[in-house]
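Figure S7 source data.
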Amino acid sequence: MKVKMILSALTEAKSPFFRPIKYSLFPPLGLCTLAAYLSPDDEINLVDEHVEVLSLNDQPDLVVIQVYITSAYRSYQIADHYRKRGCYVVMGGLHVTSLPDEAAEHADTIILGPAGDAWPRFLADFRAKCPQKRYVATTRTLEGKPPIRRDLIKRERYLCPNSIVVSRGCPHTCDFCYKEAFYSGGRSFYTQLVDEALAEIQKLPGKHVYFLDDHLLGNERFANALFDGMVGMGKVFQAASTVQAILKPGLLEKAAKAGMRSVFVGFETLDATNLAEHDKYQNLNRDYGAAIKRVHDCGIMVNGSFVFGMDNDDESVFSRTVEWGVKHSIETATFHIMTPYPSTALHTRMAAEGRIVHNNWDLYDTRHVVYQPAKLSPEALERGYWRAYKEFYSWNSMFTSAGVKSDLRAQLRHLSYAAGWKKFEPVWDLLIRTRQVTRMLPMLEAVLAAYGRFQSPIERKGAQPSASQLLTADQ
Ligand code: SF4
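Tokens for the predicted iron/sulfur cluster complex:
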């Protein structure tokens, strides 16, 4: 059987105003995971439209398309094209699960939720020539899943070819997150067996690993065992966590020992009313400053994520957030305009209040305002969003922020990481065009490791952090 698997381009990835490097970071792990269920005799052509040109002149037996909200229209276009040619089209992913009826108009079959058991059931039915229109994953487990088809990854086209996922979902329920809807009807947070995860990590070539899990530290027992098992592998890794998990005594230290060198943290807002309104309870009454200090003391960099446009945000939110990030020496920041994705609790509330302005999915990219904000005009919100990026990544801010650190290596690492990410766009573009982006991996590894072994302040003092340092709870 000829199978074509397509990760269609997000609209923003095709815009000349956005940064190609952002879309050349991670390979399409979801499709490689699905490919593992195909037969060795199947001929698989896996295309990631973010890094290669999609040819539409072929005639596969089965076309599989993974759909995100801002790739929905492009995905539908590709699906319609292949269906006209007589190919069988199956679609799945976050957007398909959010709006199954919309997607079903463009597919022969849709798969809802985390493919899990639904995908092999579909494949069996398809081979038996009796596929159904719709499959819903009912079994939620990663145990015994076949090894991901990493051989399908065109490694030279990605900065982080060693991306990996060892869990699914997250234990929290923020109202703006897709997670609840995507995993509805079953478990919404589960992990791989530790031994299987470690075996997969061990097999990855080179030092650098990027965990794409929503919350790698979400299951403390799993994370502890994983980090224990990674000690001595010589990896440096990046991952995501919550403020709550970072403040837990001991866990972050283990992560650092295992090789964690940067962590993505969803701070989202500095305003407690906003946090409560969006069910971000895991951040409520947590001392963000103490969390950042802990991360830095462990020799780990912070990528802080912030959302603008929550109902308690006014015109002052942009500069306040940037100043706070600079003051706390956050290395990189990711800003978002709040976006009520369909099927989320936030969308339901906003729709009931008549505040959704339009359903043009191309603009649901967290860079455009698609709802009526409470204390800001849509124009002021978009302007403030772009200004925040400009101010946070100005040379002045970067030097000031790096200067907050007392350790020279940490300062140098901060500057090279932030500037390397944001200030050398033409270099990234050239590397992407010439398919050399992976050549920057040793540089990334060197920066993450702070040009040699990073000795954290805790290690230097030979001291353990105090309980009060770990658990300060005033915000
Ligand atoms: S912590 Fe992150 S992944 Fe988990 S529900 Fe909230 S936004 Fe979603």
